[in-house]
Design brief:
alpha/beta, Dihydrofolate Reductase, subunit A, eight-stranded mixed sheet, globular, DHFR-like_dom_sf, RibDG_C, Dihydrofolate reductase family protein
């Protein structure tokens, strides 16, 4: 069964970027520390990263994050979602207006202008098709940014929350949670490494 998994790195004080994020500094001041684990040689970090990529049938992201990853200093063959992995998922971008051009033309992009719920539904269709083609269950992964993940949780669109808790206090930046209705989470796994604590919760 295809699940909707929100997967994001977060600081100890709840931020998914440092202060002043923008196209030239997508993670803001000091925000690179949030993703140290993704470049770690620790076998548990590598396993978490590999399993996350392997289960991704489609990936949802917001327009601001798309502008960062598709920008001149964004993803390439060595840095990016699934870089170095065998397969790459489809990407679905939530936006009010599609971009005029895409730099990363080797990736499969879909731009949805009718809201987050429709974007998740489109991604589910892509993930289910990929599951059928591959013969294994694949999921939809919401990779961010923070507003996209937070809004999806608030809207009840998320089945699983996967947090990579980095041992850093940023003091300011983009918060993951900004209020909203209470949510009950059921902890499913905790994997501590020297660069992060990987936490998985079912969202009820």
């Amino acid at each position: 069964m295809t699940r909707i998994i929100a997967d994001i790195s977060v600081s100890l004080d709840g931020f998914v970027t440092g202060p002043d994020p923008g196209p030239d500094s997508g993670l803001g001041t000091g925000g690179e520390a949030l993703h140290t684990w993704a470049f770690s040689d620790d076998p548990d970090d590598r396993r978490v990263l590999g399993e996350g990529t392997a289960r991704s049938g489609a990936v949802v992201l917001g327009r601001r994050l798309f502008d960062v990853v598709d920008g001149p200093g964004g993803w390439d063959d060595t840095v990016g979602y699934g870089a170095g992995e065998v397969a790459k998922p489809a990407f679905v971008v939530v936006t009010s207006s599609p971009p005029r051009a895409v730099r990363l033309t080797d990736l499969d992009w879909t731009f949805v202008t009718t809201g987050l719920s429709d974007a998740v539904a489109a991604a589910r269709e892509r993930a289910e098709a990929a599951s059928s083609d591959s013969g294994k269950d694949l999921d939809v992964v919401l990779m961010g940014g923070g507003a996209t993940v937070g809004s999806a949780i608030e809207a009840g669109l998320v089945d699983v929350l996967s947090l990579h808790l980095a041992p850093v206090v940023l003091g300011a930046g983009t918060p993951l949670f900004t209020g909203g209705a209470p949510r009950t989470l059921v902890q499913r796994s905790v994997t501590p490494t020297t660069t992060a604590t990987h936490l998985t919760y079912d969202v009820l």
